[in-house]
Amino acid sequence: MSDFINEGDFETREAWLMQAIENFRPMIFEKTGEELPEKIRVSTGWTKRARKGSIGWTWISGAAEDKVNNVFISPEISDSVEVLAVLLHELIHVADDCEHGHTGAFKQMWAALGFTGKATCSTPGEELKDTLEAMTVLMGDYPHAKMLTGADGGKGTMPKKQGTRMLKIVCEASGGDYKVRMTRSNIEKYGLPTCPCHGEEMVEADV
């Protein structure tokens, strides 16, 4: 526990998450030999490519004008240990710059850090869970109140489903030139497709 850094009370969720990243840096290097980029952005919120059930997202460095990875943690989770586990999972994507998805180098780092179960999940093994709990004791609880959505949040908290309307799905790497149409139900059932040209997950277009 003494190896973790604690800068006192955190006024924002982002400050807490940024400090957690600094605590994770030496652990990731020790366990995997990989170093995180010097600059990473992390925030609480949804991303437009959010897949149903996902609670963390990482954007490749090339998606930002300044080539900095952006990480988002779902506002629907508030348990400090769970948030740390999701953040650590996403930091593996950062170290890999999302090159291998949840396979190959990603899965090797994921296992070396002590996760268990499916590589698409953020389930910590006992040793890793103990580490995350120790970090929470030092840093204090995640300064966030869970957002209630859907049935928990009451009427009007989430947009209505778009029924069978065909939605436009595009490949951002192609500048939106490569596109397909899918229904909302199929996106929720199967997830977003991978672009055959660039090998990247496609996203739902804004319009």
SSE inventory with pairings:
Layout: H1 13-32, E1 41-44, E2 56-59, E3 70-73, H2 80-96, H3 104-112, H4 126-139, H5 150-153, E4 166-170, E5 179-183, H6 184-190, E6 203-204
Parallel strand pairs: 1-3
Antiparallel strand pairs: 2-3, 4-5, 4-6
Helix pairs in contact: 1-2, 2-3, 2-4
Q: Would you kindly provide a brief summary of this structure?
A:
With 207 residues, this protein is of the alpha+beta class. It has helices at residues 13-32, 80-96, 104-112, 126-139, 150-153, 184-190; strands at 41-44, 56-59, 70-73, 166-170, 179-183, 203-204. The strands form two sheets. A three-stranded mixed β-sheet has the order 1-3-2, covered by helices on one side.
Plain-language structure description:
The chain is α+β, with helices and mostly antiparallel strands. The protein has 2 domains: 13-150; 159-204, no CATH class. Helices cover 34% and strands 12% of the residues. It has 6 helices and 6 strands; from the N terminus they run H-E-E-E-H-H-H-H-E-E-H-E. The strands form 2 sheets. A 3-stranded mixed sheet has the order 1-3-2, with helices on one face. Helix 2 crosses helix 4. The longest helix is centred in the first third of the chain and has 20 residues, at 13-32. The N and C termini lie far apart (48 Å).
Oligomerization status of the protein chains: single chain
User: How much helicity do the residues have?
Assistant: 25-40%
Poorly predicted regions are none
Query: Which structural class matches the secondary elements?
Result: alpha+beta
Instruction: Report the sheet-strand fraction.
Output: 5-15%
**H/E order of the elements?**
HEEEHHHHEEHE
Q: List how many beta strands DSSP finds.
A: 6
Biggest sheet descriptor: 3 strands, mixed
The overall pLDDT average reads: 86
Give the termini separation: 48 Å
Q: What is the topology, as strand order, of the major beta sheet?
A: 1-3-2
Number of domains: 2
SS field, number of helical segments: 6
Task: Specify Rg, calculated over alpha carbons.
Answer: 18 Å
> Which overall shape is indicated by the principal axes computed on the Cα atoms?
globular
